[in-house]
Amino acid sequence: MEPIVTRFPPSPTGALHIGGARTALFNWLYARKKKGKFILRIEDTDTVRSTKESVGAILESLTWLGIDWDEGPYFQTERATIYTEYIERLVESGSAYYCSCTPEEVNAMREAAKANGLKPMYNGRCRKKNLGPGDNTVVRLKTPQTGVTIVQDIVKGDTAFQNSEMDDFIIQRSDGSAMYNLAVVIDDLTMGINTIIRGDDHLINTPKQMLIYQALGADMPSFGHVPMVLGADKSRLSKRHGAMSVGEYKHLGFLPDAMINYLVRLGWSHGDQEFFERNDLIEKFDLEHLGRSASMFDNDKLLALNAKHIQSKRPEILADHFLFHLKNLGIDAQNDAFTQGVIETLQSRSKTLVEMAKGAAFYYQEDVQFDEKAAHKFLNPDCLDMLQTIADDIEGLEAYTQATLEHVFKKIMDQTHLKFGKIAQPIRVAITGTTVSPGIFEMLLALGQEKTVQRIKTAIRLIQDTA
Ligand code: GLU
Q1: How far apart are CA 17 and CA 123, in angstroms?
Q2: For 5-75+228-306, CATH number?
Q3: Which of 4, 192, 216, 312 would you call most buried, defined as having the most Cβ atoms within 10 angstroms of its Cβ?
């Protein structure tokens, strides 16, 4: 069997959005699962709206998602001669012809058709004229006037289009440039693409593209059109539903694995499994279970999945993504044992990496930033002795472990008859500056013996100075 070749052909008129990312993902997963090829093509023929910045943003977002490509990026603007070659071939074989009708004339034909209760169409006036190229001539495909073109869609099943409702559409403009549908077909054909998964907003183009394949006598790829992604209010997903681009989600602290896990579930299912690791997805993904009904984007679900992925990753893997968010807070850190320890204390309590970075800032600060209320309430002369004893005991520990720390706390509880919270809370404020933090022992262990002692001593001095 020939290898599966899929593609993602974004138009670079903006960032990579949720819908586009999902299309890319479906094609990528299928290629990876089938050990085929995934090709990236930039459809930049709309030179007014296409920008280099958008190309950069799209490539960056795909890379961040871990969607890698085997070929490309190809740029349609660099392929004009290939399109011309194929257009000439179509004209030579009699499947296409030059047309010199003016836009006004074509408009009149369309109006006349409408007046007769027909679809507004070009009437084929130049079909038999055998015109050659010239100023102001376009090239039109000779479409069959009877019969049906059936799109055998992997997702939607068969959709029939009446050929009589398709006019001889333009494949080359009068300036010599190729029309969109022609360029897409020639690209897909010459790139060897045999499986096309795309949004169902493109279904309308498919019969035209099929007619071009037929005219070229070329093998047709398989098509699958997936329903659009909707917002929670069931309208098409747009900016007003919140973040739209993959780049935004990166900055909001989402993990690429959580994103792809969420995106794939917008239209694909494997029983009732919700949580997927990347390799698991590659193994299980198939086209049979792409859904026919539109899926709704649900931010809370994405957030819950993100929390699960954060929890399930090894700290050294999380670290690289986490460091980006620390940096955004002005903290330069390394993927080292210290940072991995920090991550471990926060993994089960962070829904996003932004939340995690904010919660981790205290570990990295030279000077603890005290929350005034917390310091006032918990760091007072009453706990001076307790803090002093704890600082001394911790400093004296030969082995700095959960067990020895627990022992220090137990000893002081026995001596002072204070409850655990009465001891832990001032320590927590001394270490973090606030009353909210990871579990006390895991936190002290992650911070390390020296810094722990140093911070408790700083708190002692603070109490003494303000007393
Ligand atoms: N360039 C089109 C888009 O960004 C995709 C066309 C296709 O998949 O055939 O929507």
Answers
A1: 39
A2: 3.40.50.620
A3: 4
Asked if 233 contacts 296 with a C-beta cutoff of 8 angstroms, the reply is no
Determine if ligand 1 sits within 6 Å of the CB of residue 43.
Answer: yes
Q: pTM of the entire structure? A: 0.94
Residues of the chain with CATH 3.40.50.620: 5-75+228-306, 79-226
Closest CA to 140 of 159, 167, 158, 114: 167
Write out the H or E segment, with its range, that includes residue 328.
helix 315-328
Q: What is the pLDDT of residue 240?
A: 75
Q: Which of 114, 119, 129, 239 is catalytic?
A: 239
Q: Which of 79, 189, 191, 198 to mutate to test the pocket of ligand 1 (most atoms within 8 A of CB)?
A: 198
- Chunked into runs of 10 residues, the chain (467 residues) has average pLDDT values of 94 95 98 98 94 97 98 98 98 98 96 92 95 94 96 96 95 96 98 97 96 98 96 81 88 98 97 97 98 93 98 97 98 98 98 98 95 95 95 98 97 94 96 95 98 98 89
* CATH architecture entry for 314-466: Orthogonal Bundle (1.10)
Q: Give the list of residues 6+ apart from residue 157 with CB closer than 8 angstroms, or none.
A: none
Nearest Cα to Cα of residue 427 among 389, 465, 396: 389
CATH of 79-226, one of 3.30.43.10, 3.30.830.10, 3.20.20.80, 3.40.50.620: 3.40.50.620
Per-residue confidence (pLDDT) for residue 157, from 0 to 100: 95
* Ligand 1 pocket mutation, candidates 7, 11, 180, criterion most atoms within 8 A of CB: 11
Q: Active site includes 308?
A: no
Residues 230 and 413: their CA atoms lie apart, in Å, by 57
Ligand 1 centre from 51 Cα, in Å? 16
